[in-house]
């Protein structure tokens, strides 16, 4: 009996932990939305996730990370100062891609910087481009950490839930 | 007046000081501004104190303050300008009148004064002349008397010259006395006559004028008797000097009073002192022997006397014998003067040259009464003030240097306090020059004039003041009108301004509304899309499901509202551009009616389409908007019609034909239309070919049997947010935008809509649209004539209106119709028809059982007359009793007539499958969905006729499989329904939503149609090979995107297999049942499929996704796969093109191999492209979306293929859209992808293709 009660208590405490975590997760997510890191598109992504692809969001976001890192690398390469002439068209295309992918996961801030970046590209403003690149990098790393934290929390929650259900 | 104004001003300033009255401030300011000129103006008429400087400073402050209000003083400034103008006019008037007055007065006065002056001068002159004349007369008479006396004395003395003795002497004296007396008495005016002989004897007559005593004075005769003689011997001069006379004082003088008339002595002579009485003119007075004059005084009279002395010469003229002196009193002159002055006024006086007064017009004494001796007075010393002052004035003015002629005329001598005229005249007598002075007070002459002038002035001034006042009042009144008008204008201007502002603000409002609704629409679409996803989720509980469904309904309602607002604002802002494309009006409307009939079934409302035959089949215009108009109208009607019918009537009118009046009652009109149509058939054709621009006026009526609209609201229902009865919102919902949009659209199309009075219950909306008909299209009327085919149509339909209209139309086109509205009627008619024809049955017998109407009878008779009539029996499935199993009996009953008549079944949308199967089993193949309208009827009849012809052929030739051709026909004809659905629901969100929320789904229907479209076997095969090929292809296209593609491909291919399996099964099943049933089964399955926008709305579609961004690619893939589509994703445009080509190539190969098996398959089916649709990102590496599309389109040339390509772009600009469409894309989606929008776009495109 006692053991059972203990178990129950444990379970209850676990439940508490879960609810707390859930709350934390929700708070965190909403803070991400409020701070403008993410927008509705991310919601839409989350809605697209179902039993058939349970890791959909993570997958997409990971794709995004890969893509973005590749693009950022390319960008920094093509914007190297030593380079004589900068192929702005190429840069523009790359930024456009980045913009597209960031907008489709809802990384709003990255997207915004991309827009500014493209403007600089149009003006062929090297300094502005470099500045934007820095900004994008910064924003990207920010959103990356944020999202990673989010996924981590989700994973934890999932794990916690799993432990309960067990 | 001016003062008053000023007062108000200062009051005004006081007010403003209180800070309460802005207006006053302004008034004051204005006045301040005008103060200088105004002052100047006013000083000409009235003296005005200059405004104190302190106040001025204060004004400045006020001005500063008022400056803040300057912007709002627009209205006031006009008021002030009026005020200033008024003031200016008044001042001008005042000046004018003042000048006129003064001038008039001045000239009048000048002229009067001038004429008066001359007159006065004359008068004065005359006045003075008269006493002078008198004086002159006196002088003259005195001179005459003296001369006469002298002559007489000479004579007498000469006669008695050298008197020898005393006696002679005495005699001489006596004679002299007598003569003298005679002369003396003859002149009463004489004062005295004296004769002084040279011997010293004196004789004198004296008249005392005071007491009228006359006396004779003489000296003692004895003393002189001799001495004189002796003395004569001496020198005359010595003897005659005064000393001698005075030395004669010792002589005794006597005075003897005489009778004044007779001269007799009346008293004793009295001794008097010598020279006591009178002046005796002596020798001294005639020193040179000439007459002399002088003025003397006597103590007896108080007036001066004029005395003349003349010597009497002896005969030899050598010595003076005697001296005669005559004195005359000047009293009479004074008298005359007095009289004159009495008559006139003023004063006169006469002086000697030395200034001694001789006569005055006053009673003032002329002599100084000194004790010793009276002496003459100087004029200056006169007792009369005026004379004294006058004399003094004269003396002062001229002193002793009097002007040469002594003539002075002075007009304005101020004597004392009065003004006087002073005139003096000089009478130049020898030795006695006289000066006459007349002093007349100015008042006497000019007094009247001055008074008059003053009075005139007063009158003039008062008159001018009156005129001024009246003028001012007039001006006030006049300018009041003007100012009122100005005020009104100002008000009007401000009103206009306000109106403009209000309009602008309302514009802003609607702009805002439009913007807002546009902005809201996107999230709404997202909400609905997400709800769809949620609904399609299986894990929802029932309650959740219902809640979400509810939310979805609300959201769609909201979206509809937003769309309405957008439409409205679009139309209102004039930005709505109507499409101008050809479309089949009839088809659109039929589709609409089909759609609504589905909706109406639950309402027990019949939807009837009634288009006249002459309606042009194809018109140019905006089909979507036309459909929207009718959708809204019919929606509206359905909302308010609980039971009855809704009729959509249409007829047309060609503006170039004058006889198209739409006001006919319907029946009349219809018949006329028919006639017209018949008559004009040829004429119209000609016209149409000749005229390029064929405008046609299409009239429509939407007639319902609903609750109707109050006539007072007939106009207002078309206003936005206006509903005939506010309570309807509660009952029926809605916002009142629908009709407004309708009206706007109708107006935009050059038409008009209004509510028309209608007999009976309900509403009748009539509208006309002006559309053009294409010129190159040949006339496509339903110019059918079924007369020759001897058709008999038995309409057994529930709906009264549709039955009536159809039968009318049929009869018109030469088809005999019989109507039945219920099962019993149908059976009766059937019996009547067929049993009467069969010889077994008796007509009369039948009559006994069932009463047959006269009309029916006559019809039956006419049918009997027909040769080989073909019977078409249109049976409403609703006539059968479906609730129980009786319908089978009924069906069997009808089957008895199967051979003799063609049955056409009108199916409901919800007719259950087994009924259909049963019917089909009975061999009835003609089945159409409700409602029945013209086009369907035509098709039915055509099918029937064709069938009959075939049968005839068969009967004749006995060859040719009956079924194949017939089925082909049937397919074709039955498909008409579905296309209508597409057309009806494709464009209007309102409609589609309404229908969508209905349990009976049109979309679902469509969906099934779609599936059923492609023959089962081929679909299956293609699907299978697609799976295979996807993998193949992906392996072939070897690039960076490989992993992702591989990731996605298994799922997609799996999906494809999953999806294709049930489909293939479903398609296979009916194929076993026979080809003929294939289409029908799917149709039947349609209504049962309730999932509208569910999971599988894209089921079976193969979609090629060209997107370089992996993230987007993944997202889109998942989205599409969720909807049941199979997706192949490629990384760039080149790959997309390759994929397509490869597929085609493979297809071609397959086609080659398959060609032998499916030998006569139609070309199009084989050439069906591997993908149903391509989603193409615009910006991609290697080859962008535009290029890829161009390449694809290029490759399509000649194959007859057209893969729908949907652009995906991140630029939400219209130019991008244009560019997309230009390169050959079919639609356009913006990133990030909206789920719902994507699905609907894809659906519309794939459907269009398949249809």
TrEMBL record, chain A:
It is found in: Cytoplasm, Cytosol; Nucleus. GO terms for cellular component: cytosol; nucleus. InterPro entries: AHP1-5/YPD1, HPT_dom_sf, Sig_transdc_His_kin_Hpt_dom. GO terms for biological process: cytokinin-activated signaling pathway; phosphorelay signal transduction system. It comes from the Eukaryota. CDD domains: HPT. Keywords: Acetylation, Cytokinin signaling pathway, Cytoplasm, Nucleus, Phosphoprotein, Two-component regulatory system. Signal peptide: none annotated. Residues 53-160 form the HPt domain. The modification Phosphohistidine is found at residue 96. GO terms for molecular function: histidine phosphotransfer kinase activity; protein histidine kinase binding. The keyword tRNA-binding does not apply. Histidine-containing phosphotransfer domain (HPt) contains an active histidine that mediates the phosphotransfer. Functions as a two-component phosphorelay mediators between cytokinin sensor histidine kinases and response regulators (B-type ARRs). Plays an important role in propagating cytokinin signal transduction. This is Histidine-containing phosphotransfer protein. It comes from Arachis hypogaea. The lineage of its organism: Eukaryota, Viridiplantae, Streptophyta, Embryophyta, Tracheophyta.
From TrEMBL, chain B:
Residues 1036-1045 have a biased composition (Basic and acidic residues). SMART domains: HATPase_c, HisKA, REC. The keyword Acyltransferase does not apply. One of its GO terms (molecular function) is phosphorelay sensor kinase activity. The modification 4-aspartylphosphate is found at residue 1177. Its EC number is 2.7.13.3. The keyword Metal-binding does not apply. It is found in: Endoplasmic reticulum membrane. GO terms for cellular component: endoplasmic reticulum membrane. Gene3D superfamilies: 1.10.287.130, 3.40.50.2300, Histidine kinase-like ATPase, C-terminal domain. Residues 515-773 form the Histidine kinase domain. The chain crosses the membrane at residues 83-107, 456-478. Keywords: Endoplasmic reticulum, Kinase, Membrane, Phosphoprotein, Receptor, Transferase, Transmembrane, Transmembrane helix, Two-component regulatory system. It holds the Pfam family HisKA. It is an enzyme of class 2 (transferase). This is histidine kinase. It comes from Arachis hypogaea (Peanut).
């Amino acid at each position: 009996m006692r053991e059972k009660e203990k178990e129950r208590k444990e379970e209850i405490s676990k439940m508490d932990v879960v609810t707390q975590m859930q709350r934390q997760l929700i708070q965190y997510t909403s803070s991400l939305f409020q701070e403008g890191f993410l927008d509705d598109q991310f919601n839409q992504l989350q809605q697209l996730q179902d039993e058939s692809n349970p890791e959909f969001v993570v997958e997409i976001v990971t794709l995004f990370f890969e893509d973005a890192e590749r693009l950022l690398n390319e960008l920094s390469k093509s914007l190297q100062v030593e380079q004589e002439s900068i192929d702005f068209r190429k840069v523009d295309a790359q930024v456009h891609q980045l913009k597209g992918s960031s907008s489709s996961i809802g990384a709003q801030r990255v997207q915004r910087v991309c827009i500014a970046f493209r403007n600089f590209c149009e003006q062929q403003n090297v300094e502005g481009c470099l500045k934007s690149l820095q900004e994008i990098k910064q924003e990207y790393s920010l959103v990356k950490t944020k999202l990673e934290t989010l996924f981590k929390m989700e994973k934890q929650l999932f794990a916690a839930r799993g432990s309960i259900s067990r | 007046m001016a003062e008053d104004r000023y007062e108000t001003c200062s009051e005004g300033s006081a007010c403003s000081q209180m800070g309460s009255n802005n207006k006053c401030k302004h008034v004051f300011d204005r006045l301040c501004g005008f103060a200088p000129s105004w002052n100047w103006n006013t000083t000409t008429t009235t003296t005005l104190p200059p405004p104190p400087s302190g106040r001025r400073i204060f004004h400045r402050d006020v001005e500063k303050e008022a400056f803040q209000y300057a912007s709002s003083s627009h209205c006031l400034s006009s008021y002030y300008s009026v005020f200033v103008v008024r003031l200016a006019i008044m001042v001008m008037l005042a000046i004018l009148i003042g000048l006129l007055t003064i001038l008039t007065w001045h000239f009048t006065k000048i002229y009067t004064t001038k004429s008066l002056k001359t007159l006065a001068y004359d008068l004065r002159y005359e006045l003075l002349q008269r006493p002078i004349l008198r004086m002159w007369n006196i002088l003259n008479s005195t001179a005459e008397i003296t001369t006469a006396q002298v002559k007489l004395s000479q004579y007498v003395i000469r006669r008695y010259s050298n008197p020898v003795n005393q006696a002679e002497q005495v005699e001489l004296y006596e004679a002299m006395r007598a003569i003298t007396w005679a002369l003396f008495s003859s002149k009463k005016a004489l004062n005295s006559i004296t004769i002084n002989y040279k011997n010293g004897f004196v004789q004198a007559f004296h008249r005392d004028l005071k007491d009228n005593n006359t006396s004779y004075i003489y000296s003692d005769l004895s003393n002189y008797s001799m001495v004189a003689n002796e003395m004569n011997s001496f020198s005359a001069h010595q003897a005659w000097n005064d000393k001698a006379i005075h030395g004669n004082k010792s002589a005794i003088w006597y005075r003897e009073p005489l009778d004044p008339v007779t001269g007799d002595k009346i008293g004793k002579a009295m001794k008097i002192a010598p020279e006591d009485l009178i002046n005796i003119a002596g020798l001294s007075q005639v020193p040179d022997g000439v007459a002399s004059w002088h003025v003397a005084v006597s103590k007896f009279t108080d007036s001066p006397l004029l005395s003349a002395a003349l010597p009497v010469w002896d005969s030899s003229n050598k010595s003076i014998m005697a001296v005669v002196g005559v004195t005359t009193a000047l009293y009479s002159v004074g008298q005359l003067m007095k009289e004159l002055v009495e008559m006139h006024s003023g004063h006169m006086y006469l002086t000697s040259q030395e200034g001694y007064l001789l006569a005055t017009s006053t009673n003032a004494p002329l002599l100084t009464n000194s004790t010793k001796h009276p002496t003459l007075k100087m004029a200056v010393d006169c007792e009369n003030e005026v004379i004294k002052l006058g004399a003094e004035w004269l003396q002062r003015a001229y002193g002793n240097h009097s002007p040469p002629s002594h003539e002075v005329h002075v007009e304005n001598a101020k004597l004392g306090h009065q003004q006087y005229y002073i005139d003096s005249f000089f009478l130049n007598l020898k030795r006695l020059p006289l000066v006459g002075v007349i002093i007349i007070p100015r008042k006497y002459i000019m007094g009247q004039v001055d008074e008059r002038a003053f009075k005139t002035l007063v009158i003039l001034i008062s008159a001018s003041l009156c005129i001024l006042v009246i003028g001012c009042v007039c001006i006030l009144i006049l300018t009041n009108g003007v100012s009122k008008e100005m005020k009104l204008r100002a008000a009007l201007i401000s009103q206009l301004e306000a109106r403009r502002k209000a309009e602008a603000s309302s514009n802003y409002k609607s702009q805002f509304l439009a913007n807002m609704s546009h902005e809201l629409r996107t999230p709404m679409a997202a909400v609905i899309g997400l709800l769809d996803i949620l609904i399609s989720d299986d894990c929802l509980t029932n309650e959740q499901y219902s809640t979400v469904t509810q939310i979805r309904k609300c959201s769609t309602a909201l979206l509809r509202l937003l769309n309405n607002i957008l439409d409205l604002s679009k139309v209102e802002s004039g930005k709505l551009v109507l499409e101008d494309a050809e479309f089949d009006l009839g088809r659109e409307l039929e589709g609409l009616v089909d759609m609504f009939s589905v909706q109406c079934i639950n309402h027990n409302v019949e939807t009837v389409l009634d288009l006249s035959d002459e309606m042009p089949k194809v018109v140019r215009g905006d089909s979507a908007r036309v459909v929207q108009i009718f959708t809204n109208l019919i929606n509206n009607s359905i909302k308010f019609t609980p039971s009855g019918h809704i009729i959509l009537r249409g007829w047309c009118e060609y503006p170039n034909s004058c006889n198209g009046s739409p006001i006919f009652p319907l029946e009349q009109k219809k018949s006329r239309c028919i006639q017209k149509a018949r008559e004009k058939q040829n004429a119209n054709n000609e016209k149409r070919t000749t005229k390029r621009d064929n405008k046609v006026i299409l009239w429509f009526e939407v007639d319902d049997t609903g609750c109707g609209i109050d006539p007072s609201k007939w106009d207002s229902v078309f206003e936005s947010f206006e509903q005939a009865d506010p309570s309807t919102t509660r009952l029926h919902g809605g916002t009142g935008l629908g009709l407004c949009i309708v009206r706007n659209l109708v107006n935009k199309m050059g038409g008009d809509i209004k509510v028309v009075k209608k007999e009976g219950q309900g509403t009748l909306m009539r509208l006309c649209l002006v559309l053009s008909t294409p010129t190159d299209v040949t006339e496509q009327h339903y110019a059918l004539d079924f007369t020759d085919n001897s058709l008999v149509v038995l309409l057994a339909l529930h709906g009264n209106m549709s039955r009536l209209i159809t039968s009318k139309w049929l009869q018109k086109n030469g088809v005999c119709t019989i109507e039945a509205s219920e099962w019993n009627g149908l059976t009766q008619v059937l019996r009547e028809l067929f049993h009467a024809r069969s010889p077994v049955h008796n007509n009369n017998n039948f009559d006994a059982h069932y009463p047959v109407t006269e009309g029916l009878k006559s019809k039956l008779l006419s049918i009997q007359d027909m040769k080989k009539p073909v019977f078409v029996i249109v049976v409403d499935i609703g006539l059968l009793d479906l609730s129980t199993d009786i319908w089978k009996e009924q069906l069997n009953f009808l089957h008895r007539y199967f051979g003799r008549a063609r049955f056409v079944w009108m199916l409901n949308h919800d007719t259950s499958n087994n009924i259909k199967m049963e019917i089909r089993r009975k061999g009835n193949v003609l089945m159409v969905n409700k409602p029945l309208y013209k086009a369907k009827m035509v098709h039915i009849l055509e099918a029937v006729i064709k069938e009959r012809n075939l049968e005839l052929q068969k009967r004749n030739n006995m060859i040719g499989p009956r079924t194949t051709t017939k089925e082909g026909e049937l397919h074709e004809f039955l498909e008409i329904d579905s296309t209508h659905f597409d057309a009806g629901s494709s464009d209007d969100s309102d409609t589609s939503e309404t229908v969508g929320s209905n349990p009976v789904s049109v979309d679902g229907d469509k969906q099934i149609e779609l599936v059923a479209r492609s023959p089962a076997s081929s679909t299956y095969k293609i699907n299978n090979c697609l799976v295979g090929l996807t993998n193949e292809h992906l392996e072939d296209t070897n690039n960076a995107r490989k992993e992702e593609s591989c990731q996605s491909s298994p799922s997609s291919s799996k999906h494809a297999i999953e999806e294709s399996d049930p489909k293939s099964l479903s398609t296979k099943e009916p194929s076993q049942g026979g080809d003929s049933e294939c289409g029908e089964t799917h149709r039947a399955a349609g209504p049962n499929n309730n999932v509208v926008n569910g999971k599988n709305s894209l089921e079976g579609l193969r979609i090629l996704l060209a997107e370089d961004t992996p993230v987007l690619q993944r997202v889109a893939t998942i989205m599409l796969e969720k909807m049941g589509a199979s997706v192949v994703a490629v990384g760039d445009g080149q790959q997309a093109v390759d994929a397509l080509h490869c597929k085609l190539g493979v297809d071609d190969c397959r086609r080659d191999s398959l060609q032998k098996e499916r030998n006569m398959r139609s070309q199009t089916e084989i050439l069906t492209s591997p993908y149903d649709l391509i989603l193409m990102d615009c910006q991609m590496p290697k080859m962008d979306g535009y290029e890829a599309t161009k390449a694809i389109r290029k490759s399509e040339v000649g194959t007859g293929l057209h893969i729908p390509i949907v652009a995906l772009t991140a630029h939400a600009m219209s130019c991008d859209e244009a560019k997309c469409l230009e390169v050959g894309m079919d639609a356009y989606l913006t990133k990030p992808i909206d789920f719902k929008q994507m699905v609907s776009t894809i659906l519309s495109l794939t459907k269009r293709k398949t249809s």
